[in-house]
Design brief:
heterodimer; A: 146 residues; alpha/beta; Rossmann fold; 5-stranded parallel beta sheet; 37% helix; disordered C terminus; B: alpha/beta; globular
Chain lengths: 146, 147
């Protein structure tokens, strides 16, 4: 495994945060480069999509997620795109030749009773690289998580 | 969040072997131990006595698993193997729970044929039900056509 690049899609949900922490843990000994991706789903009826400042705010939130990455001594970058989340995740994985996608099971759009979110399910099915799916953080052992 | 015990379900497909290679590399990084699991799946229940058939399958599986175990031990890892009979996804999830593994690494389990198309792969169900994170690896050759 040389020059690892992990793609970490996030929708700023607790699950996505858990996946990011996992990606950092996994990435440290491998000196992985992390690409944090947020996909704005334009197909969803989301009032945020129409507010002007939302995109800038999202970019700031995304940028903030880089802090723990850099604190762990890893390099990272952010990407903000529009589209259908699972498709954009797969496209981005190809583009940045990701060696691994790390993501949570539930997104914000996922209904809690569905054990595996539809985005994660589709990514597992269609991605061209390995996919690591993390479960909701409360179900995982946590050390030092606030 | 740590990686100390990795479960690798093996079905003797090249897909699974690739997952094993990946697991070995990660285990080396984290000094984790590996548990290799093979689930013997007999899809039909029957009145006919299949015990001799089972013995044959089981000894074949045992040999295969020992080969994998040696391969991983050759890389300096602690490895144990488990062979059980049952429904693959159920047993994989069960063993992950009882052995308290903290990561499952598996291929899409290519050997399931039609079942895969109709009901989703073993991997998908494991991802759904596992108590821990699951890494699904995949065969390079199939990648380009899948989209």
């Amino acid at each position: 495994m040389t020059s690892e690049c992990f793609l970490v899609p996030t929708d700023f949900s607790p699950d996505a945060d858990g996946a990011l922490r996992y990606a950092i843990t996994l990435g440290m000994p491998l000196h992985a480069h992390l690409v944090l991706l947020h996909v704005r789903d334009d197909t969803a009826l989301n009032p945020w999509s129409y507010s002007g400042g939302a995109e800038a705010a999202t970019r700031v939130s995304l940028q903030n997620l880089l802090q723990p990455v850099e604190e762990a001594g890893l390099t990272g970058e952010v990407a903000l795109v529009h589209g259908v989340p699972w498709q954009e995740i797969i496209d981005m994985a190809r583009q940045c030749t990701a060696t691994l996608i790390v993501m949570g099971t539930h997104g914000r759009s996922g209904l809690r009773h569905l054990l595996l979110g539809s985005v994660a399910e589709r990514v597992v099915r269609h991605a061209s690289c390995p996919v690591l799916v993390c479960h909701h953080p409360e179900a995982m052992p946590q050390e030092g998580a606030s | 969040m740590n990686v100390q015990h990795i479960l690798v379900p093996m079905d003797f497909s090249s897909d699974a072997e690739q997952a094993l290679d990946c697991a070995v590399e990660l285990a080396q990084q984290f000094q984790a131990r590996l548990t290799l699991l093979h689930v013997i799946y007999i899809p039909v229940t029957t009145e006919v006595n299949l015990s001799s058939y089972f013995v044959e399958i089981e000894s074949g599986a045992q040999q295969g698993m020992e080969a994998y175990q040696k391969r991983a031990e050759g890389k300096g890892l602690t490895v144990d193997t488990v062979i059980v009979q049952g429904t693959p996804f159920r047993e994989i999830v069960e063993i992950a729970k009882t052995k308290q593994v903290d990561l499952i690494i598996m291929g899409t389990h290519g050997r399931t044929g039609m079942t895969h198309l109709l009901m989703g792969s073993v991997a998908e169900r494991v991802v759904r039900l596992a108590p821990c994170p699951v890494m699904v690896t995949r065969e390079k050759a199939k990648n380009e056509t899948a989209s």
